[in-house]
Amino acid sequence: MARVLTLDNVNVEGKTVLVRVDINCPMDPATNTFLDDTRIKAILPTLNRLSKAKVIILAHQSRPGKNDFTSTLGHSRELGRLLGRQIKWVDDIYGSKAMEAIEQLQNGQILMLNNVRMDEQEISTTGDFTTMSKTKMVQALSGIADIFVNDAFACAHRSTPSITGFTHEIPCVAGELMGQEIRKLDSALETPQRPCMVILGGIKVDDSVIVADNMLRKGIADSVWVTGGVANMMVELSGVDIGELNHNFLVNELGDNYHSTVETAKSLLNDFSQQIHLPVDLAANIEDNRVDLFLADLPVEAPLVDLGIQSTMAISAAIKKAGTIILNGPAGIFEIADFSLGTIEILNACAEAEGYTVMGGGHTATIVVKRGLASKMNHVSTGGGASLNYIAGRTLPGIASLEASAKQFAVEIIKPVDNQ
User: Fold this and answer.
1) For residue 186, what pLDDT is reported?
2) Which residues contact 414 (CB under 8 A, 6 or more apart)?
3) Whose CA is closest to 5, among 245, 178, 184?
4) Deepest in the core among 75, 219, 274, 287, taking most CB within 10 A?
């Protein structure tokens, strides 16, 4: 359980508050219009809690070199539309224009600074919290702000000046979204309702194998069901020839991590053979047609790109009996209708399940939202890499920063009990 301070612990009225958010949204590069504003909507509860403070928003959009790397002007307008009030914006991050705009803020007003990734130090600085604190951005903004609120869970697995640089400079607390992510994930990881099943798919095979290793060896998961690229690797390591094309795809996708991933996966198959459920059939893309093949029908020199029907039915049946279901990654190439069957049927089963359902971020969250299933899940994470790393038991710098700051500033800023 992360030990962090939250907005419940601090008095923000009349204070100047820095809020780091992740409102990095998919955009149409031709028009700069948002294709999905889910992440912008997700920060509204935090901003509503800060209605009596002077609020400065730090955010990013994409990264240099990409066609959707833009200013945050459009984000400020969309946020203003959703909040129903004006959001000030300045074409600056910590220079004279930004400082002047901050000094003019009145209680209840919100100012969004420009894309923090337009600052070279934000994208190039590496090192510990102290190193981050010495950057120009942190030195300038920590000198004018009273409190730092980290509400950017989707960036919590990264260490950059705008995420971890304020750790020892000013009190740092978790925003509403960050706090919810920690609570919901901890609930599934620390006190899961039994049986707890984990479904791992997608092409981030190395990360998924580490998740499986963490959850099985710590006794969190009672069973692990593999789909997508994870299934292809596990099936191959179980002794089934999946075909040279599919083997080479895994080798190329994993690169330098291939051999270490294979060793961890082999160890898991050896130590947890009863808990790891491999598919009995897979769907191949043969000349743009879906062909379901039992493992005995392999190898095939065509891409294996979805779970087979029998395996999909088996997972769906297990979901109905589970107390906790943690899912991360699609079961196949869901963008193509013929190869979306596994993904769609598994998500439908999760939506109908009586157990506690946790959906990982990234592609998983996107599919859940697009299919209108978000309200039927107990938790849909806003963080792709962050949620995967958290479930894998890795330390997230953004959360570690909040924990370190809590130790340093708790006595100084925490509200007395009678004021809560």
Assistant:
1) 92
2) 5, 9, 10
3) 178
4) 75
Report the alpha-carbon distance of residue 75 to residue 273 in Å, rounded: 48
Structure tokens at 134: 């010495």
Q: What is the mean pLDDT of residues 201-221?
A: 94
Is the Cβ–Cβ distance between 197 and 222 less than 8 Å?
Answer: yes
What confidence tens digit (pLDDT) does each residue in 34-65 have? 888 889 999 999 999 999 999 999 999 999 99
Task: Name the token pair of 302.
Answer: 């065509």
CA dihedral 294, 296, 297, 303 (to 10 degrees): 70
- Of residues 24 and 32, the one with the higher pLDDT is 24
pLDDT of residue 414: 60
**How many angstroms separate the CA atoms of 373 and 351, rounded?**
6
CATH class of the domain at 7-181+396-419: alpha beta
The overall average pLDDT reported for the chain is 94
Measured CA to CA, the distance from residue 157 to residue 163 in angstroms comes to 10
pLDDT, tens digit, 9 for 90 and up, residues 65-78:
999 999 999 999 99
CA atoms within 13 A on the CB side of 294: 2
Name the burial class of residue 92, with classes exposed (0-12), middle (13-18) and buried (19+) by CB atoms within 10 angstroms of its CB. middle
Residue 365: both structure tokens together: 């969250």
Task: Give how far Cα 183 sits from Cα of 47, 97, 180, 380, Å.
Answer: 19, 38, 5, 12
Establish whether the linkage from the previous residue to 279 is cis, with ω within 30° of 0: no
Query: What pLDDT was estimated at residue 419?
Result: 40
- pLDDT (0 to 100) of residue 27: 85
pLDDT at position 323: 98
Q: Do domains 7-181+396-419 and 194-354 have the same CATH topology?
A: yes
Paired tokens of 58: 């730090």
Beta-bridged to residue 358, according to DSSP, are 326, 379
In the CATH scheme, what architecture does the domain 194-354 have?
Answer: 3-Layer(aba) Sandwich (3.40)
Q: Is 235 helix (H, G, I), strand (E, B) or coil?
A: helix
Q: Write down the H helix ranges in 104-204.
A: 120-124, 129-133, 136-142, 161-164, 176-190
- Cis geometry, peptide bond prior to residue 299 (ω within 30 degrees of 0): yes
pLDDT in tens, 356-375: 999 987 888 889 988 999 99
Q: Alpha helices of 272-373 — where are they, by DSSP H?
A: 309-321, 341-352, 363-370
Can you tell me the distance from the alpha carbon of 293 to that of 21, in angstroms, rounded to the nearest whole number? 45
How far apart (Å, rounded) are the C-alpha atoms in residues 59 and 383? 15
